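=== RUN LOG ===
request id: a7f3
mode: sequence -> structure
chains: 1
length: 56
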Amino acid sequence: MRNPEMEGPNYREMVMRCSGCNDQASCAELQKGCDHLDAAPSYCRNKELLEARARD
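=== RESULT ===
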């Protein structure tokens, strides 16, 4: 993070979106099998944000 003090709230929002995910089991399995993804899965609640950060 370029500025942790400013990014902290954004990171918290991402964590909260993950905690409210309806497909946490699939995400956990995906993470077990992959240490890197080129794109977030379609069901990811942070997909748009992760894709925007990848373009930066």
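=== NOTES ===
The chain is about 60% helix and 0% strand.
The radius of gyration is 12 Å.
=== END ===
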